[in-house]
Amino acid sequence: MSAFVRERLLRWAVVVPVLAMVVLLLTWHRKPPPLVLGAVGVLLAGAVLAAVHHAEVVAHRVGELFGSLILAVAVTIIEVGMIIALTIDGGPKTQTLARDTVFAAVMVTCNGIVGLTVLIGALRQRVTTFNPEGTGAALATVVTLATLSLVLPTFTTTRTGPQFTPAQLTFAAIASLALYVLFVLVQTGRHRDFFLPVATEEDIVNVDEGSEPPKTGTALVSLVLLVVALIAVVGDAKIVSPAIEHGVEAANLPQSVVGVIIALLVLLPETLAAARAARRDRVQVSLNLALGSAIASIGLTIPAISAVSIWSHRPLVLGLGGTQMVLLALTAVVGVLTVIPGRATLMQAGIHLLVFAAYLFLAASP
């Protein structure tokens, strides 16, 4: 890449998040006309691309493992803010929004992003490889968190309906946060090597051919711009959400589709970052992004919305329906069979993407 092109990209990655944030501030708590909504949508897409760029800069400085963690946590924290804002503003019809969004995040990451990652890796290498130890631990964490937070409320009997009592909700929140913290400690400390890309002969030969990490000042600027871009993504998504909800109602689609759309928008940075890592034959990094985002989505979202629900005495429906639980169980089984060998082909990619397609279809036509 020439210095001129690199400079132009750098300018674009700086200007777009700032511009998206300015538009967000100007349109907050207002009803912009359709033309302005279109501009917000364009800036939202640009902010997503800028977020991916700055996440890669930060990852290059602190290491891919911490870079993946930073992106997942940043997106999830802002996702929580968006869920809480929409829940408070939306009234009774948003009681299931948190459940729908968190479940959508699990399906998008564990099937959509994982399937896309394996597909890209298999097309490039025929058989893509990764560490089954770290990836298996991440998948086990996702399944445990999803079961404790989203499946058990359907079967508890103390309170009528798929809801936890305040005591049960408190336990689920503490357990989710504790398991998330434990996973982060294992991933970044005691067993860090389980989550690093599998070294190949080509990696060893070219170990000194990579570009130098950015300076600390550059990385800090990118970190700030990453946060700005992510806030703009979620904020602009909230601006266009009334139009999305109106479109969902006009199309006679279930309310849960709103949660699907929110998850797809919020997870766009991870999706693009995972695809770019897979194109560089860093499939392990892509899987870290996908499963790490799913863990963060549950492990941070459930405690936050639980606290808001208990404090505000708002009902919170977390229990999944029968169709959703079947899809979650299928995702768990398929994920285990994909992870155990530490190798995957187009077959595994196709299975994950088909499960994801089935989820999208059934979300629109339950």
UniProtKB/TrEMBL annotation:
Keyword Electron transport: no
Bilayer topology annotation: Multi-pass membrane protein
UniProt KW keywords: Membrane, Transmembrane, Transmembrane helix
Main location: membrane
Transmembrane segments: 9-29, 35-53, 65-88, 103-123, 135-155, 167-186, 219-237, 257-275, 287-311, 317-339, 346-364
Cellular location(s): Membrane
Domain of life: Bacteria
Keyword Transmembrane helix: yes
Pfam families membership: Na_Ca_ex (PF01699)
Sodium/calcium exchanger membrane region domain residues: 35-188, 222-362
Protein name: Ionic transporter y4hA
